[in-house]
Write a structure and sequence with these properties.
The longest helix has 17 residues. It is built from three helices and no strands. The protein is mainly alpha-helical and 61 residues long.
């Protein structure tokens, strides 16, 4: 297995923790994020943060 920097491994681990995302898919997603222009990567992170902060789960789920 390739040795990646700790921060990249952490990103892969976070993606791999999502339902239906295995280690290989998590690596692909992580490489994709790293390939984005900085502004797009920041917008992606901000969208996650804002959704988490402002969207509530329905109590009936």
């Amino acid at each position: 297995m390739a040795a990646f920097p700790v921060t990249f491994e952490t990103l892969i681990d976070r993606f791999a923790s999502l339902p239906g995302i295995g280690r290989k898919s998590a690596q692909r997603l992580a490489f994709h994020i790293l390939g984005l222009p900085e502004g797009e990567a920041e917008a992606f992170a901000e969208a996650i943060y804002e959704a988490r902060r402002s969207v509530a789960r329905c109590a009936r789920t």
